[in-house]
Amino acid sequence: MASPEKQQFIADSIQYWNPGKTQAWQDMQVDLVIDRRQGYFLFDMDGRRLIDAHLNGGTYNIGHRHPELIEVIERAMTRFDMGNHHFPSLGRTALAKELARICGGDMHYTIYGSGGGEAIDIAIKTARHAKQKRKIVSVMRAYHGHTGLAVCAGAERFSTLFLSDRPDEFPQVPFNDLDRMEDALKGRDCAGVIMETIPATYGFPMPVPGYLNEVKRLCERYDALYIADEVQTGLMRTGTMWGYQRYGVQPDILVTGKGICGGMYPIACVVVREPYAGWLKQDGFGHMSTMGGAEIGCLVAMKTLEILERPTMVAHVNYVSETMRNGLGRIMDLYDDFFVGIRQCGVVMGLEFDYPEGAKPVMKHLYEHGVWAIFSTNDPRVLQFKPGVLMSAALCEELLERVERAIGLARAECLGGARGRLKSAA
Amino acid sequence: MTAIVAELLAGAKRPIGRADQMLDVAEWAAAAYARFDHRAVDAIVCAAAEAGHAKAAALAEAAVKETGFGVVAHKTLKNQMTSRGLYEHYRGQDFCSKRVRAADKVVELPRPAGVVFALTPSTNPVCTVYFKVLLALMTRNAIVVSPHPLAKECSAEAARTMAEAAERAGAPAGVVQVIDEPNLALVEHVMASPRVQVILATGGAPMVRAAYGSGNPAIGVGPGNAPVLVDATADADAAARRIVESKSFDNSVLCTNESVVIAEEAVSDKLAAAMARYGAVMVKDDEVAPLRQALFGAGTFAVDLLGRSAATIAQRAGVRVPASAKVLLAPIDRVGLDEPLSREKLCPVLGFIRVPHARAGISMARALVRMAGAGHSAAIHSRSSETVMAFASALRSLRIVVNAPCSQGAAGYGTHLAPSFTIGTGFFGRSSVGENIGPEHLINWTRIAYPDDASEPMGDFAGLEPWTSLGPLAGGREAPMSLGVLQEGAPPRAPKTAHAAPRAAAIDEMAVLREEIRRLVQDELRRALRS
Ligand SMILES: Cc1ncc(COP(=O)(O)O)c(C=O)c1O
C-alpha cells in the first residue's frame, strides 16, 4: 500500500501532469514513482528497491548515474555548456571522429539530435535528400519515436491521434517477411527502409537468420538506403557495439540514442555513409537543433563509448547474457505451460508467455518482487527483459531468483488456482 | 581529439572504473571456474605453464632490459622453474575434487577464494607472475595481477601469455587479468575492493602493510635478511661454493639470499680462501667505507644498484675488482643498526664477520634477524645437529636451510620445502602464513560433518559430484542468440522433451541445437523467398 505522500503525489500527477498515463499504470497495479537511482537499482519514493531490467530501453545500459559519467559532466561544466550549434565545436567534432572510427568504413559524418526521435527524423531526411525520393518503408509495430517523421514510421495509434499519419509516404510491412518487403521496394520509389535491428516495442522478435542481410540486398537492388535504428540494440547490448554487426549487415545510416547519453545528458546521433551525406555540403544549415549535440552531451557520449570499448566488455556482456539464458531456461522448465519462449540476442531479450497479455501479470508480480521490467506495448504476450551490460554475477543471481518467484505467481494467477480464476472472471 | 577534450575525459575515476570492470569480469570468471573438474583444470594449468615456459628466455631478457636487475640466464631458469617446473611439482595433486574421510565421517569440498589480487615485484617480475597465476589456476581462482611499475611491461606480457593459453585450453574468459598501468591510488582501491577475496602481496614493506590494512584477507611477506653461519664442523669448500652460487644467483634479487656470512674463527680463513676460488672478492679494509657509502650513503639501500653485477657495484664504489668477480665480500666487525652493511642487500654484496665460536655466531645471527628479516630465512653450514638445532631455535626465522644455497633452498629449490616465490614470514614477520605459499593457501574447505555417534550413519557420497545441481554455467565466450516460439518466422514448437533437454545440457549440445534451428529457419526462409 502506497504511503499517503505517494498517493497524494500520484493524484497530483493525474491532476497536473498526465492523467491518462498515470492512471494506466495504476490500473496495471504498478504504482511506481522513481526517486533515487544507483547502479542497476531504482528506489521508489516509498524507499522500495527495484532491480532495473527495463533500463528505459537501454538508456541506463551501463547503470544509473555511472560515476565516470558524473565525473565527466562535472569536469565538462567547468568549461563548457551546451554550446552554440551554429559553429564547429570541440566536443561535437571529437565525438563525430570517434563515431567514424568506431563505425568504420565510409560511415563518416555524424549529425546530432537532442533525442532519438529527432535523430530518426534526421536519418529519414538524409535518405530522402540522398535519393530524392519520399517513401520510407518501415516495419509494422516497430517504434522509432514520436517526432514528425518518426511517428509516421510507427504504429498508427500515435500518428492518427494527432492527424499526422502519411500512409502514402510510409508504407509498412510485416517483420521477417521478405516477400512483402520486396513488394514495397520493387517500384523503386522508396528512399529507404528503416529497421530496428530487433524491434523493441514489438517484444524483440528476432530477425530470422538472413532476414536483415536480405533486406539490405533488396535495398541495394531497388535503390533505397538501409537505416539501422540502433537506439535499443546498439552499445554492446547484443555482444557487439552495434546490433547490425551481430547480423553481418552494413547500414547506410545508423541512429543511436538512449544509451549513448548514459541517461545523464540528452544526445542522439546519426552516422551517415559518406556518399549519402550530400546535404551537409549542399546546405549545412539544412537541419538545425539548438540542443542537438549539446557539447556536454558529446563528452558524456565519448565517455560512454570509452567504457563500452574497454577490453573486459565483451566477456562481461557474454557472461550476463549466458547467465540469463541458462537461468531463464531453468525457470522455463518449471513453468513450461506458461513461460514458453526466450527471444534473445545478448542482453536484448523478450520473454514469451503463452497467455493473452501474459506479460502484464508477470510485470506486476515482478514489480511486487522488486524487479522492474516492462511489457511490450505492441505484443503484450511478451515481456521486454533488458539486463544491463555491466551487471555483476551476484546481481544476476538475485535477479533470476526474483524472476522465478514472480513468474510462478503470474502463472498461478493466469492458469491455475482459484484465486487466479476468480480474478480474471471479475 | 583536442587536448582540451582529452583532458576533460581523463578524470581520476577512469583508472578506477577500468579496474572495477576487470574485477567484475574476474568475479564472473571465478564463479564459472569454481565449478570446473580436476581434469579440465589440469589441462588449463598445463597449457598456461607450457606457454609460460616457451617464453621463459624471451621474458627473462625483457625483464632485465626493462628493470636492469639480475642476470638473463638465471631469470630464464627461474621462469622455467615457475612454469613447467611448478606444474610438474604439483601435477597429480588435486585441489578441485571432494575428499571423503570416512573414518572421521567428514566430507570436504574445496572452495576457491574467488578473486585473487596479486602484487608482483620488480626484482623477480616474470617468475612471480607465473608462480601466482599458476597457483590461482590450480585452485580454480580468478586472478588480477598488479605488477610493480618498474616491471609492468614484462609482467603484463607474462600474465597475458598465460591468460591466453588458459583461455584457449577452456578457462573462462577473464580468469587471468593484469593491470597495465598500475599506480598507488589504483592499487589501494583494488586492495580494498569487496570483490577481492584475498591479496597475495609480494613487494616492499609499505605495500605489504597496505595490503594488510586494506580490510581484505591478505597473504603478505616481509623482507628478508638471511644470516649464514659456517661453523668449524662444516665442509668449508662446499659451504663456500654454495654461498657464492646462492649470492650470485640472479645478482641476489631473491629475498632468500644470504646477507652476512658469520664464520667461526677456526674455518674463516679456509672459507674466505675457498670463496675467493669460486669468484668472491674480499674487499680491502679501506674499501669497505666507500662500498658502504655507495650502497647505503643515502640512508636507504641504493635502488639503482639493486640486482646489479658485482663489477658494476665495485666500480660505483671506486673499488678495483676483476670483471669476473661474482660476489663482493665486505669484512665487517659488527651487525646491527650501526653497520648498514648488515642490512638486507638485494645485490651480490655479502657482509663477512668472524666469531670465536658457534655460540657467538648464533647470537650474532639472532641479532641480525632481530634488526630485520624476522620470520624469513637463515642458512647454516654445519655437520653438528646440536648446532643446527640451537641455531634454528634461537633465530626468529621460519626457514633454516642446512648445507645448501639459501636463495634457492629456502624457496624450495634443492630442498623439500614447497617451491615458492612468495615466502610466508608468519607471525614473526607480521604475516598470516609462515610457510612457502602454495596452492593450498588459496582455498578453503566446506566440511560436511556427521555426528561421532555410531548410531547415526554417514551418507554415501560415492559418485556424487558437488556442482552438478547448480545447472549450466556461463563461460563468457559468446552472447547467445535464440528465436522465441511465438514470433513470426519461429520454428514450429518442438515437443516438450526436446525443448527441455538443451537448456540443462552441456554447452556443445546447445550449439548443435542452435545450428539445427539455424538450418531449419534458413530452409524455411529459402522456401519463403522462392514463393
Ligand atoms: C528503437 C527506438 N527508436 C527511437 C526511439 C525514440 O527515441 P526518443 O524517445 O529519445 O525520441 C525509441 C524510444 O523508445 C526507440 O525505442
What's a quick, concise take on this entry?
Chain A is of the alpha/beta class and 426 residues long. Chain A contains 16 helices and 15 strands.
Query: What do the pLDDT scores of chain B average to?
Result: 92
CATH topology of the largest domain in chain B: Aldehyde Dehydrogenase, Chain A, domain 1
In CATH, the homologous superfamily of the largest domain in chain B goes by the name Aldehyde Dehydrogenase, Chain A, domain 1
What is the radius of gyration of chain A computed over CA atoms, rounded to a whole number of angstroms? Answer: 22 Å
Description:
The complex is a heterodimer of chains A (426) and B (531). Chain A is α/β, with parallel strands linked by helices and 426 residues long. Chain A contains 16 helices and 15 strands. Chain A has two domains: 138 residues, Aspartate Aminotransferase, domain 1 (Alpha-Beta Complex), CATH 3.90.1150.10; 242 residues, Aspartate Aminotransferase, domain 2, CATH 3.40.640. Chain A is 42% helix and 16% strand. In chain A, strands 4-10-9-8-7-5-6 form a seven-stranded mixed β-sheet, sandwiched between helices. In chain A, strands 1-2-3-13 form a four-stranded mixed β-sheet. In chain A, strands 11-12-15-14 form a four-stranded antiparallel β-sheet, with helices on one face. Chain A is globular, with a radius of gyration of 22 Å. The C terminus of chain A is likely disordered. Chain B has 531 residues and is an alpha/beta fold. Chain B folds into three domains: 197 residues, 3-Layer(aba) Sandwich (Aldehyde Dehydrogenase, Chain A, domain 1), CATH 3.40.605; 184 residues, Aldehyde Dehydrogenase, Chain A, domain 2; 50 residues. In chain B, 44% of the residues lie in helices and 15% in strands. Chain B is built from 18 helices and 16 strands. Chain B is globular. About 2% of the residues of chain B have low confidence. β11 of chain A pairs antiparallel with β16 of chain B, so a sheet runs across the interface. The site of pyridoxal-5'-phosphate (PLP) has 14 residues of chain A, from α6. Pyridoxal-5'-phosphate binds next to α6 of chain A.
